[in-house]
Amino acid sequence: MQRMELIAPCHFGLEAVLKKEIIDIGYDVISVEDGRVTFEGDAEAICRANIFLRTAERVLLKVGSFKAYTFEELFQGTKDIRWEDYIPKDGKFWVAKATSVKSKLFSPSDIQSIMKKAMVERLKSVYHTEWFPETGNEYPLRVFFMKDEVTIGIDTTGNSLHRRGYRLLTSKAPITETLAAALIMLTPWNKDRILVDPFCGSGTFAIEAAMMGANIAPGMNRNFTAEKWTNLINKKEWYDAVEEAGDLITGDVEMNIQGYDLDGEVIKAARENARKAGVDKYIHFQQRDVAELNNPKKYGFIITNPPYGERISEKNELPKIYRTLGERFANLDSWSAYVITPYENVEQDMGRKADKNRKIYNGMMKTYFYSFMGPKPQKNGRKQEN
Question: Which domains does the chain carry?
Answer without folding.
Answer: 4-155 (3.30.2130.30), 177-216+230-246+254-372 (3.40.50.150)
